[in-house]
């Protein structure tokens, strides 16, 4: 997460090591090398270069030792890492293989496809974690679902319900999130291949065939055209992240209010201590679910601003995506982890019969 150093206290509070590791520059570099190698092999498959040259180039790319310090230094000048990467790759392969290295590609083809490779893995992980949250809530329902609870509307006592009724409110959106993710995947997890101006004009008529071979090798969807300036699937992803964390934030907010002194319809194991008030046990995980949801919600307008990729390519909006999307993904991972752990930390939910203001009073 932006501002959260690896191993630091902020990462421990609001970070997610699994998602951050998948987005780390070393992994993103590996993804870019996968894209470059897939492109070289595709050139051989369509006959644009000799197949043996293409395979030798791809193998050299996959084993290339990239000077990451130089990559960073030159990226500061170029505004992106791919120009430096392509120069280093050409220097790393024998001269007779250079025709099969990057020629015809553009930086955005490499970086967008590399991003999609990362998103493929991250979203698989998020779906697994959503299932885990649902399972822990089902277990919570089995433990406390029959307990009485006073429903509250506008934070005022309303009518008697059960804990199961409230847990159902927490679980209900999760199935919809899984359905929306399944619908989003084909629109999002797609190869990017357009060449310098997105028309595939640099592929000498082989663009569709090259794209087909690359998409198959990388296990990605194969759109008919490049999506250099169509960022709607990424904006849709941002909306999905906001909806997921918003649902988890609602659960966290409810639990924090239920644990409030004077309400006392939730008792949490552990919790956060206060440096000034030893008697306090703060519902930290529940609060953080609210915080993470709000953090992602305020990033969403920025991702929507990045929809404006002017003309055939934008440096402005593209870079804005790099700043906004990774922290949103990491925050979502953090929320999913907190949400899965929270039910296990609940020792009691609901009101004991006979309490004032409860159904048994």
Write the layout of secondary structure elements.
Blueprint: H1 9-14, H2 17-23, H3 25-45, H4 51-62, H5 68-78, H6 82-92, H7 107-144, E1 148-153, E2 156-162, H8 163-188, H9 207-218, H10 232-258, E3 266-268, H11 284-305, H12 316-341, E4 346-349
Antiparallel strand pairs: 1-2, 3-4
* Arithmetic mean of pLDDT: 93
Report the sheet with the most strands, covering strand number, pairing sense and barrel closure.
2 strands, antiparallel
Strand order of the largest sheet: 1-2
User: What would you call the shape?
Assistant: elongated
Strand-pairing-aware structural class: mainly alpha
Distance between the termini: 48 Å
Rg, alpha carbons: 25 Å
- Which spans of ≥5 residues are poorly predicted at pLDDT below 50? 273-279, 354-361
Element-by-element helix/strand order: HHHHHHHEEHHHEHHE
Number of alpha- plus pi-helical segments: 12
Helix content: 55-70%
Strand content: 5-15%
